[in-house]
Amino acid sequence: MTRKSLLYSMRIGVITAVFSAGYLCGTVTQHNANAGLDEFGGDLMKKAADSGGALGSAAQLGTTITDMEKHISGLQKNLETIKKVKSMIGG
């Protein structure tokens, strides 16, 4: 091998190693998705909901769904409490 081809081979090897290490690190770490409106500007979403149009309608739908999820979570907690009390009573 000539010196030039050896240099190119080493360069390709280094680039391949760096890419492989980056790909491995990217696939090993876990990325969590979080769709909380409070973190992404809940005030901004409320202003968009008041603006009207297609964006306003979508923003209203998003805030409504978020509110519904909060209420359902509260109801599920209450239902679990009722089940515990019912089992303690013997029903």
Please, could you describe this protein's structure?
The mean pLDDT is 80. With 91 residues, this protein is an all-alpha fold. It folds into 2 domains: 31 residues; 56 residues. The protein is 80% helix and 0% strand. Helix 2 packs across helix 3. The longest helix has 37 residues.
Secondary-structure-derived class: mainly alpha
Q: What does the main sheet amount to? A: none
Number of helices: 3
Provide the residue-averaged pLDDT: 80
Which term fits the overall shape? elongated
Radius of gyration, in angstroms, nearest whole number: 27 Å
Helix content: over 70%
- Our count of domains comes out at 2
Amount of beta strand: under 5%
What is the first-to-last residue Cα distance? 86 Å
Helix and strand element order: HHH
Would you report the number of β strands?
Answer: 0
Poorly predicted regions are none
